[in-house]
Amino acid sequence: MGVLVNILFLSIGRLNNIADNGIYTDLLREFRDNGHNVFVISPREKRLNLPTEHSVEEGVNFLRVKIGNITKVNLVEKGISTIMIENLFLKELKKYYADIKFDLVLYSTPPITFDKVIRYVKKRDGANSYLLLKDIFPQNAVDLNIFNKKGPFYWYFRHKEKNLYRNSDFIGCMSKANVDYVLKHNSNIDSETVEVCPNSIEPMNIQVSQNDRVQIREKYDIPTDKTVFVYGGNLGKPQGINFLIDCIRANEGNKQSYFLIVGSGTEFGKLENFFNKENPKNSKLLSQLPKIDYELLANSCDVGLIFLDKRFTIPNFPSRLLSYMQASMPVLAATDINTDIGEVIESGNFGYWCESGNLEGFNQLVNKLCDRELRVGLGINARNYLENHYTTKRSYEIIMSHFNKEEKR
User: Facing residues of 233 across strands?
Assistant: First the structure.
């Protein structure tokens, strides 16, 4: 073990169970399994009607703090609740963890409003701090015309963002394009402190036989004789739902392919209205499934889809990519030109990319991926790339390398 003993992780996600599979729970188990004491502070939304409480679950300490509602609410309520989170977290940290000396505080974006908690732990305990940068906010909101750059919301959150970066000893970004963006737009940051620490998981092996594939597809009334392109995950403004709808329309007459959309989010209603109104026969929309059901369904499909709004100037890198790679599926991404996810997919030879809005190019790639032999090879490459680049063991080693260096000096 390195010099770090007590790890504090601040999360905006609910993290119901440390045994769940996900980019954060997998990483926290990696820290736990390497002998660290792991402490998690995560929120409990008011609508759950549950109090703040502490528990120890499978060797990990959880402090679940009652906060306002931040999901499935309007922007004003979400904004107010988000702003209040850091004060609520800080109050409960002082109460429950007064006697714990933390060596490292880990946190991710969103949100960017943990700065006060981080500064307190660093000052009180002399802790190091490591930001897992998953979201570049508020610029992403500007890109989607949610914020105006001249408005007070933008400047308030931009100020918070700068403070967060300033108080982070290290910043782990999802990809090289993210590193370049952060350094370009924040000239005060030392380039030595910013690195690639990608989204990662502990890869599972979900074996689905040919018979199981057929049965699962039949269960959801999905064709067994077509190449099934699946999109699973958030259906919100960042995904550029209008282009997804264009792709579904264009796919209607394709006798080789079938589109399956599974998810939830602020734009789900827009998709649902489209399906109800136009009743497409060559695609299906399902609301979010339990994780294990989704994984089985995804493993019964053929190609994973990624969509991002073409207006983005920030380089998003959706973690949804990992579940496709885990299932040994090739990936077809339609995104803006600023993310490097397409470059990674094509250089890793496990799929294809086109610019969002390029319907002709997208359709050509759909037809190309209807070749089963091609898909099998790309799928094998996807799984290999995942195991070589995107495991939690690798992320853990990237984070710990800084502190092991300090110990060796």
Answer: 263
